[in-house]
Design goal:
The protein is an alpha/beta fold and 227 residues long. 30% of the residues lie in helices and 20% in strands. It is built from 7 helices and 8 strands, in the order ββααββαβαβαβαβα.
Length: 227
């Protein structure tokens, strides 16, 4: 269903998840149509900055000294992480959305941006109600961050065209799976998210019950476009 939503002044924040150089070039981690997703994320970032909306950047940087090796975690032949090694230049945040002074950067060792431990408290201190979320990969780190945000009591605005994954199908079904249980939150495109951060109202997709979208592999793209 579609509902009119607005943000209370000063009660929204932007979370950008894993917009790192790996997404461009690492064959294990490359995001489909990444440049387009990155462009849309930059639009959100500029809108947030123009409205003094707090910005949080999360980046995956695997460091065994911070978080020990987990059972069954894949490793390379040298015993080091298979991707996102802590000392790799590919873990750097892309310059198009690079943090500026005053913006928080969270380096994490797990999927969720909340796994590092400080994000919930920082958002609570700012009295945030709505967390605008964009990032990669949709079904992995974005999904984990969205679910943890909801569990922490935040409303999530999931910006579908500023998220991406390894293929369009993985991304679209990832968004649909999140939308099916996005209680208290909403799904929007970048244009509507910009309007909300500008203090305007916007008509966005919301759910009023569990699993309102019963999609198939054949009609998933149509349902995705309808969000």
């Amino acid at each position: 269903m579609r509902s009119m939503v607005s943000f209370s002044s000063g009660r929204a924040a932007l979370l950008l998840v894993d917009f790192q150089e790996e997404q461009r070039s690492d064959p294990l981690y490359a995001t489909a149509d990444f440049e387009s997703v990155l462009t849309q994320a930059r639009r959100l970032l500029l809108a947030a900055r123009s409205n003094q909306t707090p910005v949080f950047h999360a980046a995956y940087r695997r460091d065994y000294a911070v978080s020990p090796l987990r059972p069954f975690e894949p490793r390379g032949g040298d015993g080091e992480p298979l991707f996102s090694r802590k000392d790799s230049a590919l873990t750097h945040i892309c310059p198009e959305v690079a943090p500026e002074n005053g913006e928080t950067v969270i380096y994490k060792n797990d999927a969720s941006a909340f796994s590092e431990g400080s994000l919930k408290g920082r958002l609570a201190e700012l009295k945030i109600e709505w967390l605008v979320v964009a990032g990669v990969w949709t079904e992995a780190c974005v999904a984990a961050s969205v679910r943890d945000a909801m569990a922490a009591g935040f409303r999530v605005l999931l910006v579908k065209d500023a998220c991406g994954s390894g293929s369009a199908a993985i991304h679209q079904t990832g968004i649909l799976n999140l939308a099916n249980r996005l209680y208290g939150g909403a799904v929007a495109d970048v244009a509507r998210a910009e309007a909300l951060m500008d203090g305007e109202g916007a008509t966005v997709w919301t759910t009023d019950r569990p699993v309102p979208i019963l999609y198939s592999l054949q009609d998933a793209p149509r349902h995705y476009e309808s969000l």
